[in-house]
Amino acid sequence: MTRETFNVLFLCTGNSARSILAEALLNDIGKNKFKAFSAGSKPTGSVNPLALELLEKNRLSTKGLRSKDWSEFSRAGAPFMHFVFTVCDQAAAEPCPLWPGRPMTAHWGVQDPAAVEGTMEEKRRAFLKAYTELQRRISLFVNLPFDTLGGLALKRRLEEIGRAR
After folding, report:
1. Which residues pair with 149 in a beta bridge?
2. So what's the pLDDT on residue 92?
3. Residue 2 confidence (pLDDT) above 70
4. What is the DSSP letter of 46?
5. In the prediction, which pLDDT does 94 show?
6. Which residue of the set 8, 9, 11, 12 is catalytic?
7. Catalytic residue among 20, 47, 87, 88
8. 12 part of the active site
9. What pLDDT, in 10s, does the model give residues 3-47?
């Protein structure tokens, strides 16, 4: 049985680290089933170099990754989103735009690796921790039995994934 590709939007405040990592991970892990996007409520305008370094080290594509405003995905002509996940607490607390089609939403909060101060090694460890947490959650997500889960059961599973460490 073939089904449509699910579009997924990952939201964060700056769209420079966590949401970018999630976009790249889902586009790799969920290729042919999912198409991931990312955006921020107050985008920094650039992708954090440590996020790019980690993605490249793990042989994930960084092509097309950019920091962008979430309003891009609420405009006419934007891709229809099936799922919208916030990956930072600040973005989860902000009033989001109305997404066309009322996608299923969940909060998958991850500590901000870009906010870590310290040595370069400490910063890289923070990025790796965020990457690993997102990778685990995204792997759980792509392996959900979408064909057999009803709306409420799916929503519950998405929320459980958001609590997975």
Report:
1. none
2. 53
3. no
4. S
5. 63
6. 12
7. 88
8. yes
9. 679 999 999 999 999 999 999 999 999 998 999 999 999 999 999
Q: Point out the catalytic residue in the list 78, 96, 114, 116.
A: 96
The C-alpha angle 64, 132, 45, rounded to 5 degrees, equals 35
Buried b (16+ CB within 10 A) or exposed e, 93-105: eeeebebeeebeb
Where are the chain's structural domains? Answer: 6-155
pLDDT value for 95: 66
Segments in the chain forming alpha helices (H): 18-29, 49-57, 89-93, 120-142, 151-163
| 96 is known as an active-site residue | yes
CATH top class, domain 6-155: alpha beta
User: What distance in Å separates the CA atoms of residue 154 and residue 82, rounded to the nearest whole number?
Assistant: 12
Q: How far is CA 157 from the centre of its chain?
A: 16
- Name the one residue in this structure whose structure tokens are 């440590």: 50
87 is catalytic: no
pLDDT per residue as tens digits for the range 44-58: 999 999 999 999 999
Angle, helix 120-142 to helix 49-57, in steps of 10 degrees: 60
